[in-house]
Amino acid sequence: MAFGDPQARLDALADISQRLLERCRERGATQAEVSCSEEAGLSVNVRMGEVETVESTRDRGIAVTVYFGQRKGSASTADLRESSLDATVEQACAIARYTEDDPAAGLADPALMATDLRDFDTWHPWAIDADRAVDLALACENAGRESDKRVENSDGASVGSHESLGVYANSHGFIGRERTTQHTLGCALIAGRGDDMQRDGWYSVGLAAEDLEAASAIGRKAAERAVSRLSPRQVPTGEYAVLYSAEIARSLIGHLVGAVSGGALYRRASFLLDSVGTKLFPEWFQIYERPFLRRGLRSSAFDAEGVATRESALVENGVLQRYVLGSYSARKLGLQTTGNAGGMHNVHVAANAGDFESLVKTMGRGLLVTELMGQGVNTITGDYSRGAAGFWVENGQPQYPVDGITIAGNLRGMFEAIEAVGSDVDPRSHVRTGSILVGRMTVAGE
């Protein structure tokens, strides 16, 4: 383990946070909060059977925020010497003294602080050294390169292992500790040659090493995906059903979350202003936040302000139930925080259909999207236009790869047109969704 005794390090960070809060009080701050973190990691990259990089990282950070009434100041340091900690507090106080009052500034309501600080089994250090990591990456790449003779090049394979410790404390008396690990293994391969080269890959993510897919399986899947994209065609411009594969479908949910998040709302930069209670999706559509999942990629008992998280619906029976707010954005909107300072925790999109193959059959004819390019999403209007690649589907079966196309619509209309969510959940993100079938979108091809 990079941290030796992680509990001892958490105790040390907690002690630092309490000392800093006391110094803030001594300097006249009416409220204060401190975030302490330490991270360590190992990452290796190989390409074409050779080691390209081996990196070992060790980082830490201390952030102090003080409030003098409704004037706020923040400062940070990575130096744990007492003189540096003192200077950080002084700097934060000096900044606060020269800022203007902000009616929305301040800590979250003390009554909302988390009290059930349970563990979610998120700490699984991987006893792997650089040599073993290199061997694993090479095995992954080799499995892919050897699985199909059409794979003639590689963008490389990588292994990463990271550990993170964090403490958040504030002058309400709240102190929360978290420790997490995350490990990754992935590979990107190039099939074909000349003008007919195609690149694709695969990767696996887990809080524990045993949750990762086997290196050989990842390599072979990367090769299979790259080869399947050879000799792509275009399709005639028109309106078709579009099936977003699971790893791509979560971007649609991300656009929803972004549009109902506090920052976009109080800046009036969202196409979903004043939409709570509005039916945005088909009646069967459901999205839940589940912060208490065992080994969830973003499980936590408290948010970035110490507010207790809770299981709740974001969308129920197709109707938007709430926004995604921290205390600052909530005050700007005249509402109460939803415990989402720092983002959402384990977003679950309920399935109403079967596996991926059954969704393709259900679609019958249309476009299966496996890659998106560009950033053509306007969060103010909801207009959506992205470069895409994937496969053309006829009679419920993928027929040939396609690329060089654009898919377009408006997110509000796309949400309404969702016909199915598959059970093929991609577990590599805190947004857990299966493939999503949108009944009709504009596809610009030939």
Automatic annotation (TrEMBL):
Keywords: Hydrolase, Metalloprotease, Protease. The gene is pmbA. Residues 124-230 form the Metalloprotease TldD/E central domain. GO terms for molecular function: metallopeptidase activity. InterPro entries: Metalloprtase-TldD/E_C (IPR045569), Metalloprtase-TldD/E_cen_dom (IPR045570), Metalloprtase-TldD/E_N (IPR002510), PmbA (IPR047657), TldD/PmbA_N (IPR035068), TldD/PmbA_sf (IPR036059). The keyword Protease applies. It comes from Lysobacter korlensis. Belongs to the peptidase U62 family. This is Metalloprotease PmbA.
